Amino acid sequence: MGGQLLSAMAAAVLAVGLGVSPAWADKERHGRGDGSHREGHRMMGGHGQTGHYLRHLLMHQKEIGLTGEQVAKIKAIQLALDKTRIKMESDILVAEREVAAMVEDDKTDLAAVEAKIKQSEELEASLRIAAIKARREVWTLLTPEQREKEQAEHERMMRHHREG
To answer: What's the structural domain count of the chain?
Structure first.
């Protein structure tokens, strides 16, 4: 049964990561404050904006003027971030489930609960940092002219979304 639960969680993380791709990177995370049932909120935390940014660059590579070499490097960075995100989100989910089980057991030592919560928070922080590093790495690949084109394209898309 534990293997089935872990497989189901891994499939859910993979589905979210490859299908839905929530908006992620420099946003504050949301949660209840008690640490329970926060997995879904965590996954929409600081790392989503970077994934969106990378997809935006690749989708508008012609308008921005990306070279083939830049596209290849961005795709490699995107894949590495996706791998990191999938693994870390799975670890966060497992840690949060363990916290929930520990909290329900009145005999569990409070220090053990605290350690598990800190472990989960450290994983989340590491994921956010990995997303920021990936975004900065991609940013250094762009020329100043490409950065301006990207920002103009982003603003155009935002106006389009607001209008329609």
So the answer is: 1
Whether 50 and 81 have beta carbons less than 8 Å apart is answered as yes
For residue range 139-161, list pLDDT tens digits in order: 999 999 999 999 999 899 899 88
Sign of CA dihedral 158, 159, 163, 164: negative
Q: Give kind and range of the element (H or E) at residue 164.
A: none
- pLDDT (tens digit, 9 = 90+) per residue, 88-100? 999 999 999 999 9
| Mean pLDDT for the stretch of residues 62-67 | 96
Q: What angle do CA 118, 14, 28 make, to 5 degrees?
A: 45
Segments forming the whole domain that contains residue 91: 2-163
- Cα–Cα distance measured from residue 97 to residue 12, given in angstroms and rounded to the nearest whole number: 14
Q: Is 29 helix (H, G, I), strand (E, B) or coil?
A: coil
Q: Is 59 left (phi over 0), alpha (psi -120 to 50) or beta?
A: alpha
